[in-house]
Amino acid sequence: MVEENTSEVSNTDVDNNIGATSVKNPKGNIHCLTIIGQIEGHIVLPPQNKTTKYEHIIPQLVAIEEDENIDGLLLILNTVGGDVEAGLAIAEMIASMSKPTVSLILGGGHSIGVPMAVAADYSFIAPSATMTIHPLRLSGLIIGVPQTYKYFDKMQERIVQFVANNSKISTEEFRKLMLKTGELANDVGTVLFGEEAVKYGIIDELGGLSAALNKLYELIEKKRKEGRIQ
Predict the structure, then answer these.
(1) Considering the domain 4-131+190-225 in this protein, what is its CATH number?
(2) In the chain, where are the structural domains located?
(3) Cα separation values, 86 from 23, 41, 42, 83, Å
(4) Is there a catalytic annotation at residue 110?
(5) 10-residue block means of pLDDT along the chain (230 residues)?
(6) Is 31 a known active-site residue?
(7) Spatial separation of the C-alpha atoms in residues 33 and 129, rounded to whole Å
(8) Could you give the 3-state DSSP secondary structure of residue 173?
(9) Would you say the pTM of this structure is higher than 0.90?
(10) Looking at CB atoms within 10 Å, which of 13, 30, 57, 115 has the fewest?
(11) CA distances from 14 to 11, 24, 123 (A)
């Protein structure tokens, strides 16, 4: 990941508390950000849960966008999903960044992890990784009134539209996968393996770390030629 003449420890900054790494390289300085476990939103999850806190991720994305020393973002996901609004907020920020972004799904990119993966300029998924696409779920007290269904429908449509706008799958096809029956026990939805996610157009390409890095450096070089990165 770092060329031989720049592989000293001083050229790699690691923050173990939030799973972030910055790598300095002649091909481009990149920031690696991990999204793991469950996306924690407005409610603090139990300490035994492995979580990604949105109040940690959002300031990092702002800092990456504003830092002149960072040329691109590598987003690595292995998440079961989590808070819908927190996940969408992170996805919207990634999609609106001016710097090149590449995502890589390892293990799983489930539920609200899907919009976060497709938010990058280019997305990869490992052959053994999976994605679970299902309707919106809500835990806790639910008021049994028509307004509740309308709220669910609007929130779900936000996810459908975001994924369709940031990938090659159509809204109709994504809804079919979301509402498919007979594949998940006691639930509706679809589980896609890496190759299937690419086939449906949700993810751009099958690949691993080296492919994701090479693509990110390619996007950085393209922006340099356009004069947007020094």
Answers:
(1) 3.90.226.10
(2) 4-131+190-225
(3) 27, 5, 8, 5
(4) no
(5) 36 53 82 88 75 86 94 94 88 96 95 94 96 78 69 83 95 92 76 95 96 96 78
(6) no
(7) 18
(8) helix
(9) no
(10) 13
(11) 10, 12, 23
